[in-house]
Amino acid sequence: MFELENDYLLNINVNGRVWSKKGAMVAYSGDLKFKKEGTFEHGLDKFVKKAVTGESSTLMKMEGNGKVYLADYGKKVVILNLQNERIYVKGNDLLAFEDQIDWDITMMSTGVGLSSGAGLFNVKLEGTGMVAITTYFTPITLVVTPDEPVFTDPQATVAWSGGLNPSVKTDIGFKTLLGKTSGEEFQLQFQGNGFVIVQPYEEGMQY
């Protein structure tokens, strides 16, 4: 259903319903209807979570039969084919997903006070089906093992697999070394078995 037309354009063959980021459609053909996600369409629980966390990502549903092309400000598109798996994605980097994929808004556990702009609030996607995410430039995928945790900049972290246990690590030394307070003193620490997708770009505050 999901195909890359090129590195920056996603081609979806819609036969039923697909969810995408609002405003991502650049062209389509066939008999398709586009509707903004209703306020309570995904239940009161998700509505409350969006309100409390400040998660502002708005979804758009595409229904019918046809072909639609999606893009997001020239960002690179990456397709993930979940097979009864779970993945976490920063809300701003989620482009589209199939209707059968379950999703929810989650908060990363932390012992320090950080705003949601540091990447603590994310979208959990779970099940079997296609998911498309976007990144600035070409991302890298880092493998995490129990013996070798991975540390990332929250603003460069795009997604990670469900088998990981992320937490926030504070390193005041980074702040002192860099001589600025742009957030580098906070890092995400990933432990367990899985992978982390990181882009070569630090996104600013998004929520």
How would the blueprint of this fold be written?
Blueprint: E1 2-6, E2 9-21, E3 25-36, H1 44-53, E4 59-70, E5 76-89, E6 94-98, E7 102-107, E8 121-135, E9 140-144, E10 150-152, E11 157-161, E12 164-170, H2 172-178, E13 186-192, E14 194-198
Description:
By secondary structure, this protein is mostly beta strands. The chain has helices at 44-53, 172-178, and strands spanning 2-6, 9-21, 25-36, 59-70, 76-89, 94-98, 102-107, 121-135, 140-144, 150-152, 157-161, 164-170, 186-192, 194-198. Strands 1, 2, 3, 4, 5, 6, 7, 8, 9, 11 and 14 form an eleven-stranded antiparallel sheet that branches. A three-stranded antiparallel sheet has the order 10-13-12, with no helix packed on it. The chain is elongated. Mean pLDDT is 84; it is low at 47-56 and 110-118.
* Rg for CA atoms: 17 Å
Low-pLDDT segments, ≥5 res: 47-56, 110-118
What is the strand tally? 14
- Shape descriptor reads elongated
Mean pLDDT: 84
Kindly summarize this structure in a few lines.
With 207 residues, the chain is mainly beta. The chain is 8% helix and 55% strand.
List keywords for this structure.
3-stranded antiparallel sheet; 11-stranded antiparallel sheet; 14 strands; mainly beta; Double-stranded beta-helix; 207 residues
